[in-house]
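We store chain and fold; thus.
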Amino acid sequence: MKIFLGFAFRPADEELVRWCDRLFASQLVHVFTGERLGGDALTPAVQARIDQCDVVVGLLTRRDAKADGKFTTHDWVRDEINYGRNKGKRAIAVIEEGVDVGGMYQGHEMIPLDRANPLETFLRLAETVGGWKREFGRTVKVQILPASLARRVGSTENGVSCAHRLWSQGKKGQWTEVTPVPEGGGTFVWIDGVKDDDLIQLKIEGLGRQILTSVATSQWMQIELENGGGRP
């Protein structure tokens, strides 16, 4: 899973960012930021980074004091969160105590932040990220067997197609195309969105008139293909 982390590039928030980095690293997720892109605006380069991520986390911390005792926050971080949501991505705002967001996040999940007692904030963030990971699943690397077939699949680019589908609790998903990659030690496919209990099935077409289909196999095992006896 890939997370875009939006935050203000200022010394006051460096510790919060370090804590986020450690939390995300413990969850084995990839983190992208707007760092080193220059400027505060939501630029096309930042949008491109958000586009390649699965979820967005934004730190809406205090910026300038207002006459009513509340604080403004960072417009570009708010824009990053809204951009992600408008793209249909899961997103959550971590909002520091006293920040005035004008009610715009009342309809969305958010996590309050008290700098004097941040433990609850980061526990909730860890729970949220863990839930996202279970929802999105993992990327699994699958070896195609037998080796004689795998060599043909991995070295052929004309007319050969490979697809996979997942089975969950006896229910089958849709066939989705994948690209076989010849590597040292065999030919492999990379399958996204695999949950712990899913079974994986592969199908190869284009090697003569045969359709080669595997049985639905545990993701912790190698997958061997056989003649499926015609189109399913």
Residues 119-136 form the longest helix (18 residues). The chain has two domains: 2-136, 138-227. The chain has a mean pLDDT of 86. The longest strand covers residues 186-194.
